[in-house]
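User: I'm new to structure prediction. If I give you an amino acid sequence, what do you actually give back? Let's try with this one:
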Amino acid sequence: MRKIELVEKEDDDSTSSESSTNSAFTIRRVRYKECQKNHAASVGGYAVDGCREFMPSGEEGTSSAFICAACGCHRNFHRREVETEVASDSPSSSSSPSCELF
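Assistant: Good question. You get back a string of structure tokens that encode the predicted 3D arrangement of the chain. For your 102 residues, that looks like this:
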């Protein structure tokens, strides 16, 4: 499962004589990787089930979207990986910022 979050940041340059605004976009891609749930914690051991990546068992927006279809545990047991990318919109380009996600 991949979740993409787009954050827009605007910086005003007060030292220039122009009234241009530089826009910077931070794109965060969140992926949930292997399951880290310890199934043998109650007996003092350590054993994981080998689930390699979170796969939601239901549609996004439902409570079953937080349950993994492969291993049956909650999404919080899976390792969270965040990829951050910063893209800027140059002042010479069009006034509406564009950003290609894929």
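You can read the tokens as a compact description of the fold. Here is one thing that stands out. Residues 12-19 have pLDDT under 50 and may be disordered.
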